[in-house]
Hints:
The structure is a homotetramer of 466-residue chains. Chain A is α+β, with helices and mostly antiparallel strands and 466 residues long. Chain A has 2 domains: 9-244, Aminohydrolase, N-terminal nucleophile (Ntn) domain (Glutamine Phosphoribosylpyrophosphate, subunit 1, domain 1, 4-Layer Sandwich), CATH 3.60.20.10; 269-438, 3-Layer(aba) Sandwich (Rossmann fold). In chain A, strands 3-2-4-1-10-9-11 form a 7-stranded antiparallel β-sheet. In chain A, strands 5-6-7-8-12-13 form a 6-stranded antiparallel β-sheet, with helices on one face. In chain A, a hairpin with a 3-residue loop joins strand 7 and strand 8 (174-179). Chain A is globular, with a radius of gyration of 22 Å. Chains in contact: A-B, A-C, B-D, C-D. Chain A binds chain B through residues 89, 96-100, 123-124, 126-131, 136, 139-140, 142-145, and chain B through 89, 96-100, 123-124, 126-130, 132, 136, 139-140, 142-145.
Amino acid sequence: MKALNENCGIFGVIGHPEAAKMTYLGLYALQHRGQESAGIVTTDGRKMYERKGLGLVSDVFPDERALAPLVGDAAIGHNRYSTTGTTNIINAQPFLIRFRGGYIAAAHNGNLVNAQILRQHMEREGSIFRTSTDTEVIFHLMAHSKYSEIPDMISHALKRVRGAFSLLFLTPEMLVAVKDPHSFRPLVMGKKDGAWFFASETCAFDLIGAEFIRCLEPGEMVVVPAGGEPESLYPWGRIPLEKASGCIFEFIYFSRPDSIVFGAPVDKIRRRMGHQLAREHPVDADVVISVPDSSNTAALGFANESGIPFDLGLIRNHYIGRTFIQPQQKIREFSVRLKFNTVRGVIDGKRVVVVDDSIVRGTTSRQLVRMIREAGAKEVHVRIASPRIVNPCFYGVDTPDKKQLIAANKSIEEIRQFIGADSLGYLSIEGMLSIKGLPKMGFCTACFGTKYPVLIEDEAMKYKME
Amino acid sequence: MKALNENCGIFGVIGHPEAAKMTYLGLYALQHRGQESAGIVTTDGRKMYERKGLGLVSDVFPDERALAPLVGDAAIGHNRYSTTGTTNIINAQPFLIRFRGGYIAAAHNGNLVNAQILRQHMEREGSIFRTSTDTEVIFHLMAHSKYSEIPDMISHALKRVRGAFSLLFLTPEMLVAVKDPHSFRPLVMGKKDGAWFFASETCAFDLIGAEFIRCLEPGEMVVVPAGGEPESLYPWGRIPLEKASGCIFEFIYFSRPDSIVFGAPVDKIRRRMGHQLAREHPVDADVVISVPDSSNTAALGFANESGIPFDLGLIRNHYIGRTFIQPQQKIREFSVRLKFNTVRGVIDGKRVVVVDDSIVRGTTSRQLVRMIREAGAKEVHVRIASPRIVNPCFYGVDTPDKKQLIAANKSIEEIRQFIGADSLGYLSIEGMLSIKGLPKMGFCTACFGTKYPVLIEDEAMKYKME
Amino acid sequence: MKALNENCGIFGVIGHPEAAKMTYLGLYALQHRGQESAGIVTTDGRKMYERKGLGLVSDVFPDERALAPLVGDAAIGHNRYSTTGTTNIINAQPFLIRFRGGYIAAAHNGNLVNAQILRQHMEREGSIFRTSTDTEVIFHLMAHSKYSEIPDMISHALKRVRGAFSLLFLTPEMLVAVKDPHSFRPLVMGKKDGAWFFASETCAFDLIGAEFIRCLEPGEMVVVPAGGEPESLYPWGRIPLEKASGCIFEFIYFSRPDSIVFGAPVDKIRRRMGHQLAREHPVDADVVISVPDSSNTAALGFANESGIPFDLGLIRNHYIGRTFIQPQQKIREFSVRLKFNTVRGVIDGKRVVVVDDSIVRGTTSRQLVRMIREAGAKEVHVRIASPRIVNPCFYGVDTPDKKQLIAANKSIEEIRQFIGADSLGYLSIEGMLSIKGLPKMGFCTACFGTKYPVLIEDEAMKYKME
Amino acid sequence: MKALNENCGIFGVIGHPEAAKMTYLGLYALQHRGQESAGIVTTDGRKMYERKGLGLVSDVFPDERALAPLVGDAAIGHNRYSTTGTTNIINAQPFLIRFRGGYIAAAHNGNLVNAQILRQHMEREGSIFRTSTDTEVIFHLMAHSKYSEIPDMISHALKRVRGAFSLLFLTPEMLVAVKDPHSFRPLVMGKKDGAWFFASETCAFDLIGAEFIRCLEPGEMVVVPAGGEPESLYPWGRIPLEKASGCIFEFIYFSRPDSIVFGAPVDKIRRRMGHQLAREHPVDADVVISVPDSSNTAALGFANESGIPFDLGLIRNHYIGRTFIQPQQKIREFSVRLKFNTVRGVIDGKRVVVVDDSIVRGTTSRQLVRMIREAGAKEVHVRIASPRIVNPCFYGVDTPDKKQLIAANKSIEEIRQFIGADSLGYLSIEGMLSIKGLPKMGFCTACFGTKYPVLIEDEAMKYKME
Lengths: 466, 466, 466, 466
């Protein structure tokens, strides 16, 4: 499932002599969270240095020379996946400005739901906006606060915004990491050689050899002054984990299986979703195949629980996304064929279970089912390791409008017919939330039809619900 | 003379179906005014479109495809020469923002002297700054004004800034061109096929075949609504030309000789500066040579007036500025050699007059004199077609600090010794201002030691005077 | 296993109005066979057109405009993996020349063993060489033949070379596909809409929707004239399949599992190698993991046969190969870490079987074992789905010198100690060749220590044996 | 006059520790002789190293890193101007091959007239050709010679070719510089710090500070062994200078005025051509203007001799050639406007003499005359500082076919009418050759209608005469 686009990856470090290089490697490990733009801002305690560009980390930083000007022992970095569809260097992060507090940069993962309203309000008050990023709204709020200390300003600003934000701020004096009180997006903290690290996922720590310390708590703000130790503040008070609404899609799709997010290893949860899916929707079949790579773990879980052998029936071309034929032909089905090919020997004459992580519009699934039948499958049973997506996300996941969400508009039987499967089964919300080992915290399941944890105040967003 | 860096080039058009292409050609003709970055913003009456980048116009717009997204029949463009030394895409113009008045873009030639003070003030009031451009200050002032119409907002903002500004604003509804009440920088108006054009110099009109209508008056604001005719407003009232302080360096160096600026043809004035220089500093010599290309016209004037034959004694390599040897060797003298070579046959055994447009640090002149002597000159007489530069410019010309200006620290005799010439003569201020055909207006000659027409309020700028 | 480098990918088509586009897509599907350079040559029956460059297919052909000049309805293309270590555009293929037969281009997969000797001989006779490719040797032989027809010239030339060659030739009049009499490298033939296609693997046909017709026979030369039907010639006579020596490594590592090569589906053979490996080297363990992606199929086979559950214990970062940190640090171990990360939950506290496709130097295996232990494995049992590599390959596989092949210099027990595994087992040659479904043909197993099927005449190659 | 395209620039050095850097600077100084491609080959006495690319020297060698791999103390370089119209990296020089003599590279300025015939002959004998360069023909001839020493092979080969060649050869053991017996193209020799230098023009020596020693004689071959002194050989015997046929266009247009070629300073000869032109075609006028920059010197000469004041009536935009508008519009007249603009004040109301170096097709002249009239000229008198071009060049100058040469098809009066001038005068052949200071040698004036000094054997070339 690829139509649900990734949210962003962020990384920060303070107290390391090779801060830019550490951040480069951290972004490299988080590349799966965003490929549209990459950027790093560093500080040497006096000035701040930035480099940003469109493309992969390796495009923006093609050689050592690209890192050389990024001096200093503190840095933050960002991999961006556009949720707006407009590719524009202006919106690349981290975002660096000057205001009465001096220079400050920020890297933001998540999406505010009242950004438009705040923006309109601030425009009426005389603010000017250069970008369409939420980060600029936060900076304006900081600038207009009464406070003179950076943590107070951040606290003031963030208490006025609503939505999802895992944020890293960098000034010449300090690095500040904050997670919103709902804890929508992951943010982890690590340590190595006296330096402190922050990242979206722990796989970034594994690469640089940093020790994973812990996840940030809901509404926690960690302030690390240059040369000092981290101090935790709680602008919204201490929020019990049960009141959180962590994005369950981090376990379903976003995070790498080798990461820990929200305190749990992704691979373990994802596998058990496969187990639960097999229990909820058993089927008599010969082989279980996955839609690689994102569904591998869930498919393996399904196979183990059902006893049906797991096999490699689809091969993914990892050079996809870089061919120009796709966007110009706009033949969605051809783009699926560019990305996947079937292994006939695995499929031919078999009753096949295909495990995918989710269905958004249904077009990819339809094409996959067709390809699997062409490869000789006797039956094709589709199993989805997440519940039906019936509502758009407003907290950072790039879902299409409600009218394009197939499950919002068709019954399961109608979806089955549309994709051409012999049977179709989704993981239930209850089944998903009952999974053993899932962190003891609240999760956001709004896209599956439950209540939105944060009120949507934004006109543009309401539009998506039509 | 190359150390006095060019100020910027701006171009605008409204009412032309190929607005982006016209602007591309206009910027191409104005390329001599800035090579650091180029950009174009267009509008189709609803949205605005931008493309900016570092480098020449031909680097930023390498082919038709680069212009294709810039739809609409109104556009503004900008060639930037950094006056700060920092090459940063962030500061490339035109500058496009969103504020309560909607979307607006601006292209600015010139320099404000109270930008820092205003910026500090506005930061205290809660404004955030993304760039170090003066334009951002103007936008903040507009955003905080009480007015709701764009021309009123512009008027409000510009009445609060001090310094040099030839400005083009573009919104989906109109194009606005303004010149500061001192008329520091040129701005001309043209017409073709019902479309209205604005440019720094008329050479941009020549290329696209537009008719030159007139120069903007000091403090004039021309508003051209989409589909409408230009209307002139005078936010500072009508200012007599005698009260203006046009930059005399436009005639000495910046503008192309084939342009009209401030109502006078550049080549005519520049030539007469050569005449006057010959009258003020006659010399018994065999040949007059110029430092090509910027001093050609003045040298020719010197030759004609003095009766000494003009000749081509220095050849300029037009591929200079693009070799990487220069910046790494940091041998200033070698960089002069990369740019110029002597023609021995012209110089050998001769008493040579070298006419240059100005002397800033004196290092280039020193190397040129040495090269001319090596080519066999019996005597080398340096004649400068402008007065001694003894003060930095705060209105857009990138002069170094006062302590680096050779004429601010040495007598003429000391300079002569430093550059190794047999004699040295500068044009006098009086002589320069007495030139026949010079527009009947006031000129700024502050860099030559007269009063600054606009008070310097800026700390950073005061620093330059030390 | 990454140190055994891929050989090349070739693709050809004749009779298709979009020949260049088909070839682009074919090369895209064959990208795994070579990433150093890519190229396409086309013909419209009169002229020939070429475009080549360093990098991926998507780098060399970034957009439709890159294909536009490649007109005509016949084309050949090439993805190159350098076996020499020198990255040079000069050696990129297809290789296009002019000689007495007019214009001709060729794309070559494989390696000649008497190229150096022929080259020295021809140099003595007065030939000049522009490249270090074998293809240039073949062209010289063609040019010096007595024949006047292209197929005769090719036949003449190829009968004089020794070694591995799957070759595609293109002239304005015809496309010729040839496989050497030993059938070292795969070459398949397909059809669609009256056009004829040739490719290294059938996965290229799947992408463009062409029908797989058959593999070329050992020593078969297929001539397809423009507008005509294929005709098969046999320059070396009909050679029985049993006398062939197909590269068994195509099943072990090179080919994509969804391809058919040498008449058998790769995934089926590769899986059964896993079965056989499990039978030969059983172990009491908790989990089987693979080194993704190349060992996935064999690992799955091992798991199925042994009854030990398969799991995903290593995650591969598909952006590897594009970070600049690796080559500069030259810390081999870090480069393994950049490419793979462990999934602790899968490994911790377990007795782990790691299935890899081969061991060359042993350094990657050593680092992987270390990482798996760091992730908590109680025991690490390494199983290799191919026999020990004790001799270099001279037919197109980029193996290092004999002295760098760990299995040529250490006993199995010494290798086990070197890589730090608790046990180590290799597939036996006999076991490998006994696999059910393996094509009824001879295979080359020289790298595993058996007789080289073609005598090595080349000094440089003998050197590798020391 | 720009339609007569430049021939190539070559540079060589042996015995200098920074051979690649010297060559880079030499090519930079010779950039005016060719902008299509640039390349450098070096040797350290064992191996040879090359880098070539399309574009300017600064495009192919953008930074120090591009030179770093070019180690060794001997090098040759080449700036290419395509005479064929096809831009192809394959044909970029220097050209490096391997043959029985080992590795050898060559850089060639000029054009052979029997290359096609030799090529066809050699193809029949079994040679294959990769490029369409003459250099490849020479290498084949060397390879087929009976000799074993490089100078003998070169001698053997060059005695079989006809036409123009100034050639530099480089092997690990020596550098060889040769000029054809007709001495068509310039080639000069210099010295610095014990190293020996060769270049097309002396301006390359001026930049690096090398001493100009002398021009090569007609048919001279200078061999400089590594670590040794130059030795001169004369494969064609000593040829008196009067029997030479140096390209007179080097004085008219190609060479930089600050260079010495064929033993005479270019500026002096070019100026005297202006004198002679003024004597041959006097006119009553107010101002003499040049078509910059190539006609500046001749125009000055005309002005001095005639007593009519010289002035700057046309301004050249040095960024031309890099705008994409020109090639796509194919409006020749617009391309002239992109390159030149008139200075109205110089021209308005005046009787203008325009001095240009030559007329090829007449289209540029026609547009210039029109622009000058639009700028207010009362009369426009065109004076051409060379004779009428009535025949194509076969020795390296990219003239069009005879039918496109306006002077081959129209009388002077018809040309005058076509370009719209009030009068038109060409320098006479006799006048040109009578110029004082012109080297005492024979010159080729075949393009002006005299006998071709070398018989044209080539079909393709004969075609140009139709």
